[in-house]
Structures are given as structure tokens and as C-alpha cells.
Amino acid sequence: MDDRPMAERIIRLALEEDLGHGDVTTDAIVDPALRGEAALIAREELVLAGLPVFKRVLSELCPETAFEAYYGDGDLVRQNTRVCLVKGQLAPILRGERTALNFLQRMSGIATLTRRYVERVHPLRVRILDTRKTAPGLRWFDKYAVRMGGGFNHRFGLSDGVLIKDNHIAAAGSISRAVYLAKKHVPHTLKVEVEVEDLAGVEEACRAGADAILLDNMNPAELAKAVEVIKGAAMIEASGGITLDTIKDVAATGVDMISVGALTHSPKAADFSLEITSQRDKAEV
Predict the structure, then answer these.
(1) CATH number, domain at 234?
(2) Which of 2, 86, 180, 228 is least surrounded, with the fewest CB atoms within 10 Å of its CB?
(3) Is the peptide bond before 92 cis (omega within 30 degrees of 0)?
(4) pLDDT tens digits, the chain, 285 residues: what are they?
(5) What secondary structure letter does DSSP report for 213?
(6) Residues 141 and 252 in one domain
(7) Which domain holds residue 192?
(8) The pTM is what?
(9) Which helix (H) or strand (E) holds 79?
(10) Alpha carbon 236 to chain centroid distance?
(11) For residue 282, how far is the Cα from the chain centroid?
């Protein structure tokens, strides 16, 4: 994970949201001097993503917390497997447990779903991409999880590249006009991609000089025809309603990329538990 300041801001906000003025349950029941160990267990087969975030949450509450990790992000973890052992004061571990698990469950869910899509198109040479359909405020973590699952990131934000969609075309008046305006005003280092819905749009985008063409909601037969029309003149992305059941047929048409919004807008949370395995008073250490 290569943006620690961003990660720390997200983590601190999440802890502030959950802790409020304090964990009244833990404060009432758990002696601050009590130390012990807790095991992080994967309750289902999954692709691990977010372990550094899990650790950072608990370390934020107690820097002395120690971790013994048996797997790393991107690894396939079997059901009922111990992923990591957490050692330290039990009170801060309990305060951060839910927040740490929430991040880990979401991120591993995204990575696991992404891996399924990636495996479904193997060995075809096509990239599986995410979209900007991420949980607000969690995009950095969501897109990191996609990479851990073997996928690739589309734009992180609106400043990363030009993607001319249907409403941009409506505002500009035509595909050609929209591409012309984009190429006139943005730096030459940014690629210009345009979304089209039919073969007429494909032909117009090619004539306009688009660097990439997004084929939206086309069936495999339409996609194959579009690939023939483009003939390598632009990168080709397929998108729109693509599922695990249909993605192999889409990939077989010859497109370069397939974007799947479901990777980040509809992931199933991976199943983890954090269980105290031992405890001892500080005086016993």
C-alpha cells in the first residue's frame, strides 16, 4: 500500500465514527492491564486484501500491538485458516476489532470477487477493470483490493483521464464534437476515451480520433462487429451488465479490457472472525 497518509486519514475517520466518546462496554469490563492474544481467522476460502489496514487500525489505538502474520495480501486463504495472530493489550484490540474487520471483510470480498472474474477469462489476453462505482470515501481501499485480486484500475478520479459519456455527447452535440473539444483542451498526455452504444457510434468515434472506445451494453455479436470496425485504431473496452456467466463470451470477442462495476459496488463481505485465544495480567508478563 503506497499512500500511507490517505490510508491513515480514512482509518482515523472510521475510528472516530465508531468510538465516539469511548467504548463504554470495554471500558467497563476489561482491565487496561490485561494482555493477551487474538487470532484472525478466515471462515471461508478467500483472497486476502487489507491486512495492512487491519494492522494499522489496531496500531492506531495501541502502537505496541504486535502481529504475527501467516499470509499476505493477494494470497489465497483456505476456509477456517488462521491468517494472523494479534498480541498486546486486549482493551485497544477490542475497541478496534469491528473497524479493523470491516475494512478487511470489504477489501477481501472485492479481491475474491475480482479473482473469480480474472480466472473466468484465463487464458485470454484481456484486462479486468474496476470503475468509479466505489463506496464514497473508500475508493483508495476498494481499488487497491481489485489489484490484489488480479484486476486493474480504471480512472481513480475524474482528473486521471478523459471519458466522454452519453451526457457529455448530448451536451456537446455529437461524438465528433466532444472528442474534438477534449483533444483541444486537455494535455496531450491524457488519452481520450469515448463511450458508444452502437456501430454508428463506433465509426464516428474512430473518425474523430478517439484513443479508446468503450462499447456500452453490447451483446457479444455486436462487440465482435465493433472490434472488426475498429481494427486496432483504438483500445477497446467493453462494459455494462457483464457478469461471471457472460464475461468469457465478451472476452472472446477480442476486446482489450472489460470493466465490471460489480467488483466494487456489489461485493459480498468476506467472512472473518477475531477470537481471543489467551489472556494474562500485565503483572504476569
Answers:
(1) 3.20.20.70
(2) 2
(3) no
(4) 566 788 899 999 999 999 999 999 999 999 999 999 999 999 999 999 999 999 999 999 999 999 999 999 999 999 999 999 999 999 999 999 999 999 999 999 999 999 999 999 999 999 999 999 999 999 999 999 999 999 999 999 999 999 999 999 999 999 999 999 999 999 999 999 999 999 999 999 999 999 999 999 999 999 999 999 999 999 999 999 999 999 999 999 999 999 999 999 999 999 999 999 988 765 454
(5) E
(6) yes
(7) 123-265
(8) 0.95
(9) none
(10) 22
(11) 40
**Domain containing 89 — which CATH number?**
3.90.1170.20
Is 230 within 8 Å of 236 (Cβ atoms)? Answer: yes
Give the C-alpha separation, 261 to 275, whole Å.
34
**Residue pointed to by grid coordinates 488519452:** 191
Q: Do 181 and 243 belong to one domain? A: yes
Which residues are tagged catalytic? 98, 133, 165, 195, 216
Number of Cβ within a 10 Å radius of residue 82: 15
Q: Which of 14, 224, 196 is nearest to 100 (CA)?
A: 14
Residues 222 and 208 in one domain: yes
Distance CA 128, CA 146 (A): 9
The number of residues in the chain equals 285
- How many angstroms separate the CA atoms of 251 and 118, rounded? 11
Let me know whether 59 and 19 are in one domain: yes
Grid cell locating 97: 476489532
